[in-house]
Design a protein that fits this description.
The complex is a heterodimer. Chain A is an all-beta fold. Chain A contains no helices and 8 strands. Chain A has one domain. Classes of the chains: A mainly beta, B alpha+beta.
Chain lengths: ~90, ~450
Amino acid sequence: MIFKTIQEPIDVLVAFRKDHSVAIHATKPMTFKWGTTYYQVDGVHLVHSERRGREKVYIFSVSSGALVYRLSFSTETLAWRLEEVCEG
Amino acid sequence: MSLRSCATTSVRPCIIHLDMNSYFASVEQQANPLLRGRALGVCAYLHRHGCIIAASIEAKERGMKVGMTMEEAQTLIPDAVFVENDPAKYRAVTSRVFAIMHEVSDRVEHYSIDESFLDLTGWVRDPAEAAFLMTRVRRRIRDEVGEWLRCSIGIAPTRFLAKLASDMEKPSGLVVITPENIDEVLSRLELRDVHGIGRKLSKRIEALGYRTPLEVKRAPVANLMHAFGINGYVLWAKLNGMSIETLQSDPGPPKSIGHSYCVPMAANREKKIPAILSKLAEKAARRLRAEKLCARAVSVRIGFRVPAMPGSSVRPHSPFALPDVGDFDAVRFEEPVDDSFALVHAALRLLYAMWDGTQPVSFLAVTYSEFGEKSGQIAMTSTSQDVDGQWRDDGRRTEAVAQLSRAADVVRDKYGDRALILGSLFGISQDDAPDRIGFRKIDGVEKILT
């Protein structure tokens, strides 16, 4: 199993749904673009947050194809980053 | 009078213990499906001497145990996967599980990062109804928090028996202990299965002629009190279903605040010991101020690295047993303090009193205790100068330094922990004494989540 740290900004298409019992699950990244490639998100497995000073960062653990990605969304800069890729 | 207290008059007590199974490993498997179904060890840090703090259910089935070093676990299970612990992830999941608990009962005790007690007395008619309710809770945890998360549930009239019940079937068990079946349940257990009975105590109990928890339950209490004093009575009463402990839904202020760290050899080579202790002391001081507490006592514990004997199984790195070779010392301030300068300085003075600066260190811990209020009185003499030096010799200056510490906290809250650091921390990185999580620690777990 290989974990690779990336830490690069990415473009993300996100769905915000109103009709979900758990608010944190109502926000779902659907597709992201890393480099020139688009990745379809197959599943969001865990969402958690971290404090980095004043900045609150939401971490989305998602899978696309055979890989698992760690995406982060900063509530301070409103920017998305690809933090890590894991391949089995 | 509340609805619950009206209803409690005619119902039996009903306490629930919910224990998340292989918690840290399950959360990692929840976040990363590639880890599911594999032998996974969550380590304190990814190093061959790094300690396993959680093993997945699959890893436990193959013999991996908490407390092993990563090297030992890898020898046992060559295809095992290891990840470093991620406290923010576990706290987030815990707060979501706790949020579900709080929807079920108004009396919830956050016992640890992966365990909680609920008091359903008055809310359910019998244990069967509690079991039905908790099955729905378990379903909600899987649906709303993560489908890979499993929990064991114990239902009993007391806190002690509820915990005993939840430990009986793992993973995903649900065990009910009632006055009617308690003898049958205890007859299936060994002494060591009972929470609070370890290897030494079980031998002492066996020496009295009692070999099972059921025999202890039926023993004359006088015999147990003669052998173990008040603890003998407490054990007997707990096994007989008497309620000794109550749920602590409001745990109150802490009695002590501290941090510890198993120091890797590299930190010794790079001469970072004082800086690491400063970081531990500063982190604890920040938590002290966040709790609006002032400490009168500072204590430091140090463990020294023992040269491994040929064929020895001694692991000086394990945090699960304090090092055999080490020292402990404490000082008291005349006036409780909360500023980093006084506290870190006192901790460093204690370190240098016990350590010659060359001996390899394996373990460091700093603890603040004896919390109290500042009197606000300006000291006429500098009698505590030997502890914290120049900062104590003028009351106004002391207050100025305390304000400086609080101002630094504001800056760090805004720009991050490393925006402002003490000079004594210079040269250490974020990897030295990083954020860690303890099983009994629930700091940082948000009370309300979505």
